[in-house]
């Protein structure tokens, strides 16, 4: 009996450990951020509105000698980012804006599918980070900065399999309509050993996290391989779209959070730009 009890306890501990390693889930009954682990929650912060009120109070002091401030205070800009991501204050709600943009994409996709000619192969190209999967918890942990080693370690962890609101729904609708979905991401694939500083290959972990988030049955997954690590994002992604077109696909839509996901030739017939106030990748 003691041995059997121990085995049951071990199984309970194992299940609890696996559950604890799962990714945060974005709420489906309301718009808001995923609930991140305790390690990803920073200390209490000031809101952008509170910071603005403090600034206005100081500026109203008739005895104060004010300084020129042509550039917005960086900390206050981060407060506004956090407010937007937490759906508080007056700057709107990031998660609602993502979902709304995906709903517009679904309408445009339905129009393209309705106009499909017999024998045509339709394709959609999607980016991954902040397009299919969300890095919100790690960005919050880094206080909306960027610490390369931390970020790269996180995106290959099980916790990174967080689906963007609307993204998985759009993916499944495209597949149901017979449209092939290709993922093209700027993540590091097969290293370029000639560079002297090859990055770790993130292909396997990326595929695993996409599937864990519900993205299953894609037509292709491409990461930057070899010499592609040394070219611009626009050049790299354009070449990959060219390869898809060369396979006989009509690329009806590209979806991405960066303009570099969408620019370059060949372009998709419709480009869907998702909001991303957190970072810019040329």
UniProtKB/TrEMBL annotation:
Pfam families: Acid_phosphat_B
Range of residues in the leader sequence: 1-21
Keywords for the protein's UniProt record, in alphabetical order: Signal
PANTHER family: ACID PHOSPHATASE-LIKE PROTEIN (PTHR31284:SF10)
InterPro entries in alphabetical order: Acid_phosphat_B-like, HAD-like_sf, HAD_sf
Organism for this UniProt entry: Granulicella mallensis (strain ATCC BAA-1857 / DSM 23137 / MP5ACTX8)
Name recorded for this polypeptide: Acid phosphatase (Class B)
């Amino acid at each position: 009996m003691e041995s059997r009890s121990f085995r049951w306890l071990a199984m309970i501990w194992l299940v609890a450990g696996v559950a604890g390693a799962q990714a945060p889930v974005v709420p489906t009954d309301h718009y808001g951020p995923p609930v991140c682990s305790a390690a990803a929650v920073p200390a209490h912060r000031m809101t952008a509105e509170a910071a603005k009120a403090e600034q206005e109070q100081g500026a109203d002091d008739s005895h104060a000698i004010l300084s020129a401030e042509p550039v917005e205070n960086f900390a206050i800009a981060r407060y506004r980012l956090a407010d937007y991501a937490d759906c508080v204050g007056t700057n709107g709600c990031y998660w609602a804006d993502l979902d709304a943009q995906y709903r517009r994409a679904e309408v445009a996709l339905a129009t393209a599918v309705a106009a499909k000619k017999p024998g045509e192969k339709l394709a959609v190209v999607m980016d991954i980070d902040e397009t299919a999967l969300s890095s919100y918890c790690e960005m919050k942990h880094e206080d909306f900065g960027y610490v390369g080693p931390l970020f790269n370690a996180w995106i290959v962890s099980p916790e990174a399999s967080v689906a963007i609101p609307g993204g998985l729904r759009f993916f499944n609708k495209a597949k149901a309509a017979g449209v092939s979905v290709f993922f093209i991401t700027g993540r590091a694939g097969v290293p370029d050993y000639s560079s002297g500083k090859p990055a770790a290959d993130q292909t396997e972990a990326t595929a695993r996290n996409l599937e864990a988030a519900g993205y299953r049955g894609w037509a292709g997954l491409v990461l930057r391989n070899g010499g592609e690590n040394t070219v611009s994002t626009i050049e790299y992604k354009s070449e990959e779209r060219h390869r898809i077109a060369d396979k006989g696909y009509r690329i009806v839509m590209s979806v991405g959070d960066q303009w570099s996901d969408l620019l370059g030739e060949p372009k998709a017939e419709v480009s869907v730009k998702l909001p991303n106030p957190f970072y810019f990748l040329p």
